[in-house]
Amino acid sequence: MRFVDEFENPVLARKLIAEIAGMATKPMSFMEFCGGHTHAIMQFGIRQLLPEYVRLMSGPGCPVCVTSQKDIDRAIALSQFPGVLLTTFGDMMRVPGTTYTLQEASAAGSDVRIVYSPMDAVRLAQEHSDRDVVFLGVGFETTAPGIAASILQAARLGLKNYFVFSMHKYTPPAMRGILDGGEVHLDGIIGPGHVATITGSNAWKFLPLEYHMPVVVSGFESVDILLTVRMLVEQVMTGKAEVANAYGRSVFPEGNVVAQRIMDQVFQMADADWRGLGVLPMSGMAIRPEYSAFDAEVRFEIPDVPSREPPGCRCGEVLRGVIEPPECPLFGKICTPDTPRGPCMVSDEGACSAYYLYQTEALG
To answer: Quick check: 53 and 26 in contact, CB under 8 A?
Structure first.
């Protein structure tokens, strides 16, 4: 079998593939929520190794990709405020805004710096007491506790010049949005492993309870994903719908309770705008009023700049699973990792970048 000899456990991989092929006697479609899973699936060639009946689809699990065009534009506008030192993770630098990117704003004179941790931004605020240091908070439940901790640390240090522009989002509402939208037929969900280390597998119980949708939380090794698919196929074929965990070495039902407490101490639920999904109720993480002194949206009057999606870009449809990246007319032509038109081609977790990186396998 193609690629299997390169797997960490080729004997187990072959066994799982054979079991999936033996069990799946009708068409079924599973969506991997997490962009990290999409990259692993493409890298290992798992789609090509599964039987024709079993289809895997990419979902909205790329935090940079689902950040709305309006929020991208507001972040760029924030970088242009006098005295602001804007800090961000690297992926955000190259995401196209309506007119330009943060990278281009930096070249034009804005002080935009890549950091590897929100605590790096706190240190910059200590070192530049005459500047307003803003951290762009983009991510899901995985990174939110660390950013919440940076606000708590800034409070302990008595910093008056550290702020967070929170664009963080909760993952379950996005899955609700896709299922309620009815654009794609799904038979099961590959649950996000990294997110579930924080939230716990119990966070996904609403899917079998409300939608009769099987969920299996997966790790990121090839056999993790194959085991997850096998467990989903078994649920579909037996008519079950429950939350199962194929990533037991890292994920527990209740999750990381300490991280949850830190996150909940600083953030509260609020409506949020998602690229491709629109405004989803109670899907965003807003900074609580008691920590408003560290809220960039309170400190600055960030303008609502007129925003528009990149012409021809179908990233939103990719995030909803309506199309696969090669179906976008820009894919691989004028939209590449070197010249991205949309965030799905920029981010390391974006489906378009995964397909492009492994396009020989993806396009057969």
So the answer is: yes
Q: How far apart are CA 325 and CA 333, in angstroms?
A: 12
Nearest to 134 by CA among 78, 73, 67: 78
d(CA 257, CA 264): 10
Amino acid at 271: D
8 Å CB contact between 150 and 87: no
In the chain, CATH 3.40.50.11740 covers 12-300
Nearest to 233 by CA among 53, 46, 32: 53
Spell out the residues 6+ positions from residue 22 whose beta carbon is closer than 8 angstroms to its own: none
DSSP letters, 170-239, are -SHHHHHHHHHHTSS--SEEEE-HHHHHHH-GGGGTHHHHHH---EEE--SSHHHHHHHHHHHHHHHHHT
Strands, DSSP E only, in the chain?
A: 28-34, 54-61, 84-88, 111-114, 132-137, 162-166, 188-191, 215-217, 243-245, 267-274, 278-287
Residues 243, 202: contact at Cβ < 8 Å?
yes
Non-local (6+) Cβ contacts of 134 within 8 A are 78, 84, 85, 86, 87, 121, 163, 164, 165, 296, 300
Q: Give the position of tokens 């079924």.
A: 28
Among 154, 173, 201, 198, smallest CA distance to 299 is for 154
Q: Reduce the DSSP state of residue 102 to 3 states and report it.
A: helix
Both tokens assigned to 198: 């924080």
Span 77-97, pLDDT tens digits: 999 999 999 999 999 999 999
CATH code reported for the domain at 12-300: 3.40.50.11740
Tell me the HSE value of 226 on the side-chain side, using a 13 A CA sphere. Answer: 26
- From the list 354, 362, 351, 357, the residue with the least C-alpha distance to 47 is 362
User: Closest Cα to residue 270, out of 247, 286, 292?
Assistant: 286
pLDDT in tens, 259-305: 999 999 999 999 999 999 999 999 999 999 999 999 999 999 998 88
